[in-house]
Amino acid sequence: QVQLVESGGGVVQAGGSLRLSCAASGRTSSSSAMGWFRQAPGKEREFVGGIRWSGGSITYYADSVKGRFTISRDSAKNTVFLQMNSLKPEDTAVYYCATGSRIPNLRAVTQYNYWGQGTQVTVSS
User: Fold this and answer.
1) C-alpha 71: how far from its chain's center?
2) CA distance 105 to 46
3) Contacts 24+ apart (CB under 8 A), 59-62
4) Is-contact 93 38, C-beta < 8 A?
5) Torsion angles phi and psi, residue 6, rounded to 5
6) Per 3-state DSSP, what percentage of the chain is helix, strand, and coil (rounded to 5)?
7) 3-state DSSP assignment of residue 72
């Protein structure tokens, strides 16, 4: 079992920045990748970005956030970060981190076994 806890959400004005954290505990050795997703009211959960650290570190981003968001990892602390810059009102959503024992496709919601509780990000105009 793996437990995930997100933090760092809040309310910011358009153009501002936030850094989200996802701390993992439990059997973390079974995980080699983590994804970030977001969900706005009445909309489907969508992929934001992800990181795979087996055999090095590779990051992936949705087109909507590419160039603005950056994912990084602190292996010693079992923590993954999502740095969000140049925030837009359309970024407003609950943000979730997720992981699993086997995730061939980081963009697929259904391939994750463990999810955090979510943290609210609100961007005002």
Assistant:
1) 8
2) 14
3) 60/106, 60/107
4) yes
5) -90, 150
6) 10, 50, 40
7) strand
d(CA 110, CA 3): 18
pLDDT, mean of each 10-residue run, the chain (125 residues): 96 98 92 96 96 92 98 95 98 98 94 97 97
CA distance 22 to 53: 15
d(CA 16, CA 74): 24
Q: How far is CA 42 from CA 39, 45, 94, in A?
A: 8, 10, 12
In the numeric block, the tokens 């437990």 are attached to 3
Answer for the pair 10, 122: CB distance below 8 angstroms, yes or no. Answer: yes
What φ, ψ does residue 64 adopt, rounded to 5°? -70, -20
Residues, the chain: 125
